[in-house]
Amino acid sequence: MEDSDKFRQLCEDLERTSRKQHVKWGKANKKNRLVYLRTVVSDVRFSDILLFSYVFRKPKDYVRATVRSIDLAVANLHAFNSLVSVYIDGLVRTQYKEYQVRLRKLGCHVGKVRGRKDESEPLIRLADAVAGATRDLLEYKNDELKEIFSSAIKQGVLVGWRNSIYPEPPGPRPTVYM
User: Fold this and answer.
1) What is the DSSP letter of 94?
2) Rounded to 5 degrees, what are φ and ψ at 128?
3) Separation of first and last alpha carbons in the chain
4) What is residue 149's three-state secondary structure?
5) Element (H or E) spanning 85, and its range?
6) pTM value?
7) Of 98, 103, 55, nearest in space to 79 by CA
8) Distance of alpha carbon 91 from its chain centroid, rounded?
9) Order of strands, edge to edge, in the sheet holding 175-177?
10) Which residue from 95, 150, 157, 173 lies 20 to 30 Å from 54 (Cα-Cα)?
11) Rounded distance, CA 93 to CA 75, Å?
């Protein structure tokens, strides 16, 4: 979706209507968070988005994990010649340059790297929901989540799920929304 403000508003509206509200996945009511995720996957207003979920086991370096996930997401977008803006949950100002340098070394055309708090950014909360749902699906074998993920994969909304084990394990919950 080209108009990021419009997309942010759409996410906030969905958080309200699903009753998930402005809370992280783990703190939201189970029923409400499933409604939220199901709507993201099925609602035509979200048809312009791609969600990325990569799972790496036993990471030793969170920065490396996050950078690798972003690199994989950009590669899946085929955005090699596009300038990408990256927003990372909780990233502090002193880390902006480190992430930017590492991404550029991998060949990502990164315009800016910034940190955002989930309390103030609906797109970070969306990424958190996908990450939390991924973890829940892997840990608890939840049939409702399996159905939602299958639907998202079939519709081409969720990328990276099936090919999620890579030789260099990056970090915990490295889900990226771009």
Assistant:
1) G
2) -60, -40
3) 10
4) helix
5) strand 84-89
6) 0.81
7) 103
8) 15
9) 158-159, 51-53, 175-177
10) 95
11) 26
**Tokens in use for 48?**
């312009």
Q: Which range among 22-31, 121-130, 159-168 shows the weakest confidence by mean pLDDT?
A: 159-168
CA dihedral (145, 147, 152, 154) positive or negative: positive
Residues found in the chain: 178
Element (H, E) at 86: strand 84-89
Cα–Cα distance for residue pair 150/116, rounded to 1 Å: 29
Torsion angle (degrees, nearest 10) of CA 107, 174, 119, 7: 60
List, as one string, the DSSP characters of 109-135: -EEEEEEE-TTT-HHHHHHHHHHHHHH
60-72 pLDDT tens trace: 788 888 898 888 8
At 144, list the tokens: 């409702």
Q: Which residues contact 83 (CB under 8 A, 6 or more apart)?
A: 109, 110, 111
| CA 165 to chain centroid | 17
Token pair listed for 77: 């977008």
Q: Within a 13 Å sphere around the CA of 137, how many CA atoms are in the beta-carbon half? A: 20
